[in-house]
Amino acid sequence: KAVFVLENGLMGERTGTGIFNGTNRQSYAGLAGGFGTVAFGRQYTPQHLFTAAVDPFGKSGLGSASNVLVQDARLNNLAAYISPNWGGFSFVAGYTFNGTGLSVPSAPLVTSGNENLANDGDVRVWAIAPTFTWNKLFLGANYHTAQVYFRGADNVKAFNAWDFFASYDFGVAKVGATIGQRRTKRDLLNVVGAPGTGDAKILQWMVGATFRITPNDSILASYNYARQNDFADAGKAKLSQWAVGYEHALSKRTVLYAQFAMQDKNGKFRDHGNGFATVSTSPAVKGSVATSYDGSDDTRGYRRGLALGFRHDF
Predict the structure, then answer these.
(1) Where are the alpha helices (DSSP H) in the chain?
(2) CA–CA distance from 46 to each of 9, 154, 162, 228 (Å)?
(3) What is the pLDDT of residues 208-243, one digit of tens each?
(4) Which residues, in sequence order, are CB contacts of 15 under 8 Å at separation 6+?
């Protein structure tokens, strides 16, 4: 059978034509059958989907793991294959000639947007992600790597990332965790003029749980942590977040919720412009080479927030 997804984001606080924000969403088509699924277009990465599966907050809202973990949510021009399920085992594999242009203003050769005639600045990414499910157990792993193509110059190793995921549903509680490392290669750091000559490595992890108080009521809790190595002789940058939430289901699709979260940033993280020295295919990373080390952000060691609302799943 043929399958397709065409999404369009809506910015509720805007008016006029600015309400539409479709460029950041999924847009793909493919074929599915006994052989599995093959899809082409802008799609979620396995890293994003697996994190959402083990994060009690579903990687959404104030408690989201995406507020701390540096990850790639979607890739453009992605050719992806999802295998059938063989006794609980399956895998996802993908490749793109241009996942997206990197957002690095200090590196004029790196362009953003769609394919260009010279392929200058193309970010070529491949990924492999196996999973195993058994009853209420979920295990997953992810590895993806990126390379930047420069016209008239050697290709540059951009970054690679590995992650492990696990969750188990005990009935009264579901626990989940992930741990991973993201390494931005010194080849790219040298191109964009970031200080230091070594690779920038971020070790990051999350643990969380959903406690079912009643069939319609749940308490959510999670802790996220990320730390970058001292690659620039400036000390280790650290960012952590703990969050709690409460959800009451009005129906199978409609939920009332409350979330509270607090982030703690050490001095080195704030000194780096409130970010890590990373380059990512995702626009929502916690810092980039272009903004790191400018020291322009605030000096507060923590941030906190409270959110009340409702969610409806269509």
Answers:
(1) 46-54, 186-192, 267-271
(2) 21, 29, 11, 23
(3) 999 999 999 999 999 999 998 877 666 788 899 999
(4) none
251 burial (CB, 10 Å; 0-12 / 13-18 / 19+) is: exposed
> 137-157 as b/e, with b when 16 or more CB fall inside 10 Å?
ebbbbbbbbbbbbbeeeeebb
CB 312 within 8 Å of CB 253? yes
Tokens of 249: 């289901």
Considering only CA atoms, which of 65, 15, 8, 19 is closest in space to residue 42? 8
Answer whether 245's CB lies under 8 Å from 39's CB: no
The answer to whether the predicted template modeling score (pTM) of the entire model surpasses 0.85 is yes
CA dihedral sign of residues 210, 261, 279, 21: positive
- Size (the chain), residues: 314
